[in-house]
Amino acid sequence: MVPPQDLKVDVVIPALNEEKSIGLVLDAIPKGWVRRVIVVDNGSTDETAQKAKDAGAEVIFESRKGYGSACLAGLAFARLNPPDIVVFLDADFSDNPAELPRLIEPILVRDAEMVIGSRTIGPRQRGALLPQAVMGNKLACTLVEFLFDYHFSDLGPFRAITWEALERMSMRDPDFGWTVEMQVKAARLKIPSVEVPVSYKKRVGTSKITGTVKGTVLAGYKILYTIFAHAVDDE
């Protein structure tokens, strides 16, 4: 599929000390599909911001730490000149940015307003998705289906969503609950959503979440808290 000439796609990439991978990510984003790439430096102490600028990204800075905080800052910047579609992508080069059109196509043919790139149904390098991530994903997705009657197989960060749907969601979570908040709100608002398989490989560098015991525990707690908080609010 060739992207429509008037299609405006912005990519938002939260980044924290990813100088070794950010250039690889930006170079792999397919040309012609993206209007601009917004890299949100979330307090890096290395050359992440400079390398992102050198690769052609628009770089903004968010001092409040947290994955969700960085995403919210990226959306606030995008809101000054809104796109049609936002793609969220991690800066660690574990996802394959070349697969971006795969996430956008269901939106273009009006099959969905949100598309999740699922690592669990796509091919992945052995050891790329750690056991705690696999188990946490399965539990969270099972709960979402049970409580909200929306099926997902993954909380993967590589995702595309229309700007209109994103604005309806009024996203708020500043940290680990960002991805599941988006999926729960899609379920509550009955936003048409699909999954597409994406490939996944070991990240460049060490994970700041599943790579540590503290990060794993905090992320797991926040994800479950977010699901149940929205379930209670829905009643």
From TrEMBL:
GO terms of molecular function: transferase activity
InterPro entries: Glyco_trans_2-like (IPR001173), Glycosyltransferase_2 (IPR050256), Nucleotide-diphossugar_trans (IPR029044)
Transferase keyword on record: yes
Boundaries of every Glycosyltransferase 2-like domain copy: 11-123
Keyword list, A-Z: Transferase
Superkingdom of origin organism: Bacteria
Gene3D superfamilies: Spore Coat Polysaccharide Biosynthesis Protein SpsA, Chain A (3.90.550.10)
Record has Transferase as a keyword: yes
Pfam families reported for this sequence: Glycos_transf_2
UniProt-recorded name of the protein: Glycosyltransferase family 2 protein
